[in-house]
Every structure is written in C-alpha cells, then in structure tokens.
Amino acid sequence: MSVNTAHLNQLPVRLRNFFARYPPQTYSSLVASRQAPPEAEASAEKTLPSPYTPDRDAKGAHKPNRDAYSAARALLYSDPKSPNPFLPKKIFSTGKWLGPKFGLRQQADLVKLAAKYNVEALLPPGPKSTEYKSARLAERGLAIKGTGIGQKVKGHKWERTMEARLEDRRKAMVEMPEMIRLWKQRGHGRGWRQWPKR
C-alpha cells in the first residue's frame, strides 16, 4: 500500500501528523484485516447460531452469548507488534489495561476529517469508524427492538393476525357472488320493505 505524496500534502495538518506518527502501511484498517489471527478467520467462516432468540415468547429464552463470534468485534483487531492507537491495550504481565492513545471524541473527529478527504480506509480500525458502525448496526439492529439480524418483532396482536384476516376477507370476496345468488334463490331477495300481501 503506497500513499501518494502529492495527495498527502493536500490533507490537513492534523491528518498529516497522524499519518506521520501511525503510517497507513502498518496501522490502516486494510492491513489490520489481513493481519487478523487465523483462529479469528476460522471462526468467521463457521456458521454460528444467531445470538438472538427467534421466539421471544419461549420460556427460558437466554440472553445473547457475549463470547460468540461477532463480525463487528472482529474488525477491532490490534496487532501486538504495533498496537492500534484507537483501542485499549492489555499489559499481560500485570493484567491491567491501558486506555487508547486517542479518546472517542478525538477518534470521531479524525474519522470525520478523513471521510471528508476520502482517506478513512487509511485510519486504524476503531469504534468510531464507519465500517465498524455499519457492522454493529447490522448485528444489533436499529434502536427499535427486534430489527437486527435474526431478530423478530413481536408487534401488536392486530399486526400479528392481520395476514390471516386479510386472507379470510379475500376468500369471502371471491365467494360473495355465489352467496348472493343462493340468498336470492331462497326468496330473501325481495327486500325488507316489501311485506307479503294479506
């Protein structure tokens, strides 16, 4: 991956400084996706059951498994040799975590600026990146419950039974001419104002 120097000089100073400190050849999201560990790729290829319960009314419905494979979480991979500045880092000797070099607000500003100049793919993957947000939105759904992948919206009772009611109504409309013909044959077609003569 080579970055055109003429294009690089047209970028704002903030992005140029960021790319000077964290070169895209090492830190960009394109490189990170190629350097993902093999077990993550193998788990991505497996078809795991959806973490969402298809039937919300079922007894004993469990919460989603937090350890299950997630495409959005797989995007946030940090190489131990060159740690991602947008992600926290664990120190294995002490078991403590170091926060990311750039906070979420700084990440959001950098992503907006990079998107404006069409160089967002050169930034490291992070929770504010467009790719991560779209993958997470597809997994979790919108703010409306039940709109994610594999989720089911319960809805109101009239919404759940609407399809059957419309089908009954359609069948009744198809059979209506025959019902009218039979009704007239039985002598009911004289009208309610016509009284029998005495």
From TrEMBL:
Compositionally biased residues, Basic and acidic residues: 54-65
Coiled coil: none
Ranges where the Large ribosomal subunit protein mL59 domain occurs: 14-185
Short name of any one Pfam family annotated for the protein: Mitoc_mL59
InterPro entries hit by this protein: Ribosomal_mL59 (IPR037507), Ribosomal_mL59_dom (IPR040922)
CC per GO annotation: mitochondrial large ribosomal subunit
Molecular function in Gene Ontology: structural constituent of ribosome
Disordered, as annotated region: 30-65
Signal peptide range: none
Listed name of the protein: Large ribosomal subunit protein mL59 domain-containing protein
